[in-house]
Amino acid sequence: xxxxxxxxxxxxxxxxxxxxxxxxxxxxxxxxxxxxxxxxxxxxxxxxxxxxxxxxxxxxxxxxxxxxxxxxxxxxxxxxxxxxxxxxxxxxxxxxxxxxxxxxxxxxxxxxxxxxxxxxxxxxxxxxxxxxxxxxxxxxxxxxxxxxxxxxxxxxxxxxxxxxxxxxxxxxxxxxxxxxxxxxxxxxxxxxxxxxxxxxxxxxxxxxxxxxxxxxxxxxxxxxxxxxxxxxxxxxxxxxxxxxxxxxxxxxxxxxxxxxxxxxxxxxxxxxxxxxxxxxxxxxxxxxxxxxxxxxxxxxxxxx
Length: 304
Fold this sequence. Notes:
- By secondary structure, the protein is an alpha+beta fold.
- Helix content is 25%, strand content 40%.
- Strand 5 (92-97) and strand 6 form a beta hairpin.
- The longest helix is centred in the C-terminal third of the chain and has 54 residues, at 250-303.
């Protein structure tokens, strides 16, 4: 029975070990991207003239918004048009750039427009049209340079390995620049002067890679890619997390340690069981020998 019990325990133990190992090493946390409330529509500049219109409803509420992405100098016409079913009649219309009031350049019975020559960054920003009457409704246009995208907000790599940080833009920038952020300072990464550590590869016109070689713990931190356009700059931060080369082995070593403890416990239990069985088997035998020896001596005395 003890041997059978031991074999069954070993079978269960091996089964648990297989299940633990089949789970694999845990993966790192998925890159978490914060959900942002985006304006309703977006217009991308693809020529020397951009026209964008917001159709305003007849009731007040949250301002309607629209993003206009501009990479190069262009002329922009922004229009706010009142819905034909609106009960707002002859409203007072005001255009603003930020908090500064500006005048509209053209109007019709239900539409008001401004035209802008966007030749530098000073013309970028938010423009709003505000219609006041029995109630107030408004629309907002956001003029901005193309945004930069990445695979995630952070990258995980291991010591002595290489890490690749990627940035991609929806338009072609004039130049790409990589920084490492140290406190409040941005340290420019010069790959030509640090060729044994960094490699910057412009994969295509709107994609750039930063390859960091022979990673150490000191390389962990926040990196920034910057795209320079004719109308401004766009930046994106990516965090590099560096793990020890022992990190992937920790779950496996933990399972192995548990198995060793269980095997040791089982072996000690078997040794103890066998010793106990041996001891309990010898006592009756000794008592029988003593009884037999006593009877033989009694019979001998009787004969004498």
